[in-house]
Amino acid sequence: MIVTRKALARRTILKGIGAAIGLPFLDAMTPAFADSQLSGGAPVRLAWFYAPNGIDMRHWTPSEEGPLGQLPGILAPLEPVKKEILVLSNLTANWGRPLLVGAGDHGRALAAYMTGVQVYRTAGADLKLGVSADQIAANALGHLTKLPSLEVGLEETRQAGNCDNGYSCAYAYNVSWKTETQPLPPISDPRNLFERLFGTDIVEAPAAHARRLAMRRSILDQVMGDTQKLQSKLGRTDRRKLDEYLTSVREIEQQVERAEKDGATIDPGMEKPFGVPPEFPDYFRLMTDMMLVAFKADITRFSTIMIGREGSTRAYPEIGVTDGHHPLTHHMGNMQMLDKVRQINALHLALFAEFLRKMKNTKEGDSNLLDQSLIVYGSGLSDGNVHTHDQLPTILAGRGGDFVRPGRHIVYQRETPVANLFATMIERVGVRPEHVGDATGRLAGLSVS
Amino acid sequence: MPQNPFGGKQPIGVIYNTSMNRPDAALALAGLYGFEGKRESRMGSICVVGAGLNAAIFCDVVGRFYMVGPLRNANSVLPVGLPAVDPPPPDSPMVLPAVERKTEKGEPQYTRSIRKLTDTAVPEAVLRNGVIFNAEAVVILGAPATYLAKSLDLLGVKDIYKERVKRLVIVDSGARQDAAAIRKILAEWPTPVFYCGKEVGDALRFPAARIDKDFAWAEAHPVVDAYRAYQPMPYDAPTHDLAAAHFAVHPDSGFFRLSDPGSIAVGDDGAMKFTSGGGAKVRSLMVESAQQDKIIEAFVELASAKPVQPQRFRKPAL
Fold first, then answer.
1. Which value does ipTM take for this structure?
2. Whole-structure pTM value
3. A100·B134 Cβ contact <8 A
4. Contact A155, A120 (CB under 8 A)
5. Distance CA B132, CA B114 (A)
6. Residue B222, preceding bond cis, omega within 30 degrees?
7. How far apart are CA B1 and CA B211, in angstroms?
8. B163-190 pLDDT tens trace
9. Helices (H) and strands (E) in chain B — how many of each?
10. Residue A99 contacts B, CB cutoff 8 Å
11. A203-217, A229-243, A321-335, B293-307 — which is least confidently predicted?
12. Phi/psi class of residue A53: alpha, beta or left (left: φ > 0; alpha: ψ in -120 to 50)?
């Protein structure tokens, strides 16, 4: 048999003046014989959701190992997607602990979580940490996509100053570190994120940006010519996929515009960047929708999202919690405060569950985006009241391309580094560094076999 | 003694890698808690290699036995390292009586926090953590070196060991070592290494009569249970691990002479043999017969010490 069909390049983009849009995975991109991650098959994506201030673990940990039965209170929002997740117990982020240094657990918790190294205590510019797991993967494979990685945050960022007992704000605000000294600040402004994903470069060329704003044109209008050319080359299924995809891009664009309009007139009750939806759930959905599109269009394969900075004092009036999150976690056993902490934890997980459902409903070839991903939901603290860094709350969602058998609760030995999980994830995408933080090996028991 | 962050003196941390399958290991554990009661050292970590879950439970039981007063928080309970291998190595019958002993009401005689494998901890992580939790530490290797050797390959660990571990004491009780692992230790360990040969423990035997007499303050004592269970009483057990533990914490006690630097040859069967000279770095412990009674008396006093409520660090008075 002779195969003559040429595949559409995986990184095909629609270009216009000052704008470029990546594409979802189309059938036309699949060569007749190809399944490798590097040669055009559907790639595995990795994502990390970082939840600040720990979790009320008494309402998190399933009582039994093995298949997930009825989920405990905080995990209950994940009930509809429990066949898509693993709950992993007993993982540790050792370098978050006080060791011989003393206070500063929040700064260390975040900084050590994905780097797995000791956090050099400084509030100055002489930062020293390690390369985070997402960046180990991005440094190796980032050249395959438009953006090597994507860092998202749902809270404003600070990069300098003393944020936690002598630990720089850079430690408490950044989960991703490209090098030992270079944090990657998360994008918390929806428009900045949108433009990073869909603009010509990190942002649009200033002249094009100004022209579009003046004309209030959609970014899609600018790539219309390229879109029409591409559509003529596609089959019916791909044309439908492309149409759905461009529609979702337009919807997000409209969401951003709406948020900017609303943000100008509604006082959210806290400091936020311009254009942030005033309701936290809408903010979460908007940012994760963009993350999803970035995965779908293969703009990037590695992403982190900080639901809040470590030590976040965000209030959640949407669910009747008007106290700050961090103060509430120091509940000293006060049941009313504990109840509010649980409400916050459950809200985060309900939104995470929504994201997982959207990923599951996003088709990709014969599979779907969730099945092609490995997504961690976790924190560098378990008990936020006394700052414990072991027995961390950890969920792994997705199958990583038929690698994981989800729907179970796995209990590991104590002191198993959470870095073992991250090392296993990045090995799944073909990256095998000598060290992944303080990992002692790979995490057993995840896979189908 | 190093300073702790609050200004007080911090005792040296002890990392005890044991097989917990002989009475000298149980006595060493008691002795290390005896040192802790006197604030001369503190338990940094315990790792069981070459035995099963009951040995880890026994270590946990002994640790809890010496823990007086309420738990300050969950971090006060020391995790015990244990390899997750299938099938696990057999446990010594020595540990079972303490693990299974019940009160008149049918409840466990000794409290514990370990009941299943996942209550134990990853061995190489525990060994490493024991060092990084302490400004200064000593390591006692009374078990196959498999996991101590593995810990050397973890990120940054050799540097941490070099900075903080004052000495490694290798115990030779006649049990076979993991040949490849102990060779790696001997080749790569970054700080002074001492060898406590079989003849040392054999020369310093724990008097059986003192088990009855000096531990009588406790109605039930897990180490006594283990000693009695190991073989029919009375017998005077060698003190291999206890001798190594004493030297590790107090190398300047005068109890032991040190050989000239030498090397340890490791046979393919794991048998070790020390030879002085040759420019190598290991020094071997030696006992003079004139010192034996004095040393044994010190061992008895140490191992039979009562639990002491720990003091919190305090800022020095101005």
1. 0.84
2. 0.84
3. yes
4. no
5. 23
6. no
7. 33
8. 999 999 999 999 999 999 999 999 999 9
9. 12, 12
10. yes
11. A203-217
12. left
